[in-house]
Amino acid sequence: MTTSTHRNYFMPAEWTRHSGTELHWPNNPDTWPGERLPRVHKVYLDIIQAMVGFDQVHLFVNDAKTKNYVTGLLKERGIKEGAVQFHLKKTNDVWARDCGPIFVQNDKNEFAITNWGYNAWGGKYPPFNDDNAIPEYVAKEFGIKTFEPGIILEGGSIDVNGEGIILTTESVLLTPTRNPHLNKQQIEDILKEFLGLKKVIWLKDGLAGDDTDGHIDDLSRFVNRNTIMTMITDDENDVNYRALHENLQILKDARNLEGNPFDIVTIPMPTTKIEGTTVDGSEFVPASYANFYIANDVVLLPFYDKRYDEQVREQFEGFFPGRKIVGIPCSDLVFGQGSIHCITQQWYV
């Protein structure tokens, strides 16, 4: 059901309690070639196991054969039948954050879906038609009203505090391969209109090796209404040093709706250089602790670097005192140029 009555709706913060989490079972050997794909399957099982009991997992699988295979793997892990709700719906890849439904709510606690266009980060990885159809599928399956803004937008390119402020990057939203007919102000106006926003904070560039052109969920995230955690490195020779420090200064200069500065907390950058190259030829991957996911009563935190993993876990325990912090080794996952936040999408159904 599509409607244009989208006024008085707003995008809730990720820490708002939700009904479930969308995941797509990895099936694309172009993303994880050869033996890398079964290694990523193990990471997925770790993620599902960490979420069971906290969130209803909505797992998209391409066919009944895959469902039976995954059911067997879950059983080996001791995950009870019914803890995962399967959806036999074909997907092109795993990036649920970018192509999945972005929910908004109104003051009556009613939810709707904003169905933005998805073109695989500017048409980089066709086909993407199956992924682009997912919001419509979810809306029909659960009888949820939808709003269609009519522009390209990935969920990983935005982060909100639930009270009218959004973080995003110019390197993504202003690329001509997404919405070439719109300028910065026009894009900002559409974001405000359909996500119930009052203020947009624009950062600049993203991480090296991020084939999305620089999603915000690898850089800076709200951890509460007025606190922003952001990645940083003190190594001036690091490929990401300039971009991270430029973004940090923008955040320090930013003001909330009351005109006051945000609380800015820095997180160390793990190693992002890999041996060899990714499938698109990059020597770097967007390994970032900012790519965490806030589920109900638990936060899934990607682990990459033993120098920093436990330090960052302790910082997150301070950010989310009411939630369990679960570290998930994600070096195999991030080879596909995304991590935990990129493959999850919260639902309110």
Summed over residues and divided by their number, the pLDDT gives a mean of 96
Number of DSSP-assigned strands: 16
Helical content, roughly? 25-40%
Give unreliable regions as ranges.
none
Largest sheet: 4 strands, mixed
> What is the CA–CA distance across the termini?
14 Å
Radius of gyration: 19 Å
Question: Structural class, judged by helices and strands?
Answer: alpha/beta
Estimated share of beta-strand residues: 15-25%
Main-sheet strand order equals: 3-2-1-16
Q: CATH topology, which one?
A: L-arginine/glycine Amidinotransferase, Chain A
**CATH superfamily (homologous) name:** L-arginine/glycine Amidinotransferase, Chain A
Count of individual helical segments: 11
Broad shape: globular
Description:
The protein has one domain (20-347): 5-stranded Propeller (L-arginine/glycine Amidinotransferase, Chain A), CATH 3.75.10. It is built from 11 helices and 16 strands. The chain has helices spanning 36-51, 64-76, 96-99, 120-123, 129-132, 134-142, 170-173, 184-195, 241-253, 309-319, 331-334; strands at 20-24, 56-61, 84-88, 102-105, 111-114, 146-147, 159-160, 165-169, 199-203, 220-224, 227-232, 263-268, 293-295, 298-303, 324-329, 345-347. Strands 3-2-1-16 form a 4-stranded mixed beta sheet. The two termini are 14 Å apart.
